[in-house]
Amino acid sequence: MGAFVRLIPLALSSALFAGPDRLSAQDQPVRPTWAQVGFSVMGAQSTGELSESNAFGLGLEVAGRVFWGGSDRLALRVSVGVADYGWDGGAICIRLRIACPVHQREITNSITFLELGPELSWPTGNVRPYLNASVGFAGLGTSERIKEAFSDFVLETGLYSHNTSSLGVGGGVDVKVGKGQNPLVISFGVQYHRFGWVRHLPREAVVENPDGSYSLSPVATRANLITYRVGAAVRVPG
Question: Residue 10 to residues 7, 130, 169, 216, 217: CA-CA distances in angstroms?
């Protein structure tokens, strides 16, 4: 993964100086700027310390690309995504007046991110492989839900949240499946998100006190994430 991370910025920067023709400024045709927008379903796999307590999760992403001067190779990519992944926190006892019924506690982590950066692609017919790099921001949130065992929902409350920076690298392939001016494109991709240090709530950090209140002991870690995407995109008319 480290070699892959170092290789992508090099490939992106080299594209700035590459081109099929070297025409003079007056001979170079003026080509219009065009854009593409897409929607993807994500699988999310946390890495590092978070992977020890978090399951594989699901999420959604909306991404846009802007190609300047009619370029088919170099674009600015902007993406917004959210992914949820969590675990079952196990059984706890909520004390009532005359009984102590067993309840189930579920703790869920979610990450929301906004990233932008250059994307380099190599269109070959209906297939377009691509690589990208990005910077941005992310927010990690932890929530807890308590419900009766084998019964209805009882209580849900947000517990903790933290914001951090984000770096990303990734790649994938677009496959054109439609015809015409604005064809449909099916997109497959993988993205590695390196977030800064965050404080989150692992399972053992949320403790119920005898009086029914909670004690929280956040833990600092890197909330790095690998996302796997499949979605569709279309060219924006204009």
Answer: 5, 14, 12, 44, 42
